[in-house]
Amino acid sequence: MNGPELLQRHAGKLTTRVGACWPGSHAIFRGRDLHRELSDADWVDLYVLGIVGRRLDPAEVRLLHAIWVNTSYPDGRLWNNRVAALAGSTRSSANLGIVAGLALSEAQVYGGGAGIRAFAFLQQAAAAMEAGDDLEALVLAEARARRIYGYGRPINSTDERIPVVRAIAGRLGLDQGPHLRAAYAIERILLPHWPQLRMNYAALHAALIADMGLTVRDYQLLRVPTFLAGMAPCQAEAAARPAGTTFPTPCSGVAYHGVAERTWQRRRTPD
């Protein structure tokens, strides 16, 4: 079926399996009546159901809560929180500020982009371990050719979130999956060559979510609220201060080394 035929087939209607609403009557969410069957559902449980089309085990839902709670840093200096704070300082709407911060959370090196790449490589590594392939050769080749996302961290290579969330996963019986084992195996291979490349939070939560049987696409949607709870307090605090006083930068604080100041000659135009 070519492009025009495909578009015509879908023109004027929405074909969906995820749900629909009938104002004044009811709403269906993934085949369930939202207000009669899901009205008292945990929000994260509902969020996951919407993405993957099935409900996770309660222990897995609790682990997702822990993953999000333990990275909720209300620090306005962090790249995405800074945007939310600046939005509050300039009196932008709360919604626009948070959405802008969430958009920046997809940063390729240290945000969502890094997590997606970590997830993909952990799948490859876990499959290699399962097949009995040479994991060390795979890891070192990847590290030397590109980089292995999920390892290494600016400022301090120790990630304080890992022991906390790993302990919670252990109490829930969710710390023995193949992707988590692969994540630690990768770290053991990397450290003798690059001592600074300790596992960071991206590798940990990518591994834990991969061990729930979810896909890269599922993971990308699941991790959207990861930093959300840390943004709102930054925006609220900035909005409570006088406008423009969050991270103000005077002209004297800008170091400029470009083209020197020039005098512009006004050109006369013919009458």
TrEMBL record:
Instruction: Give the highest taxon in the source lineage.
Output: Bacteria
Q: Does the keyword Lyase apply?
A: yes
Instruction: Output one GO BP term.
Output: tricarboxylic acid cycle
Question: What would you give as a GO molecular function for this chain, any one?
Answer: acyltransferase activity, acyl groups converted into alkyl on transfer
Q: Is-annotated flag, keyword Lyase?
A: yes
Keywords on record: Lyase
> Matching Gene3D superfamilies, A to Z?
Citrate Synthase, domain 1 (1.10.580.10), Cytochrome P450-Terp, domain 2 (1.10.230.10)
What is the name of this protein? Citryl-CoA lyase
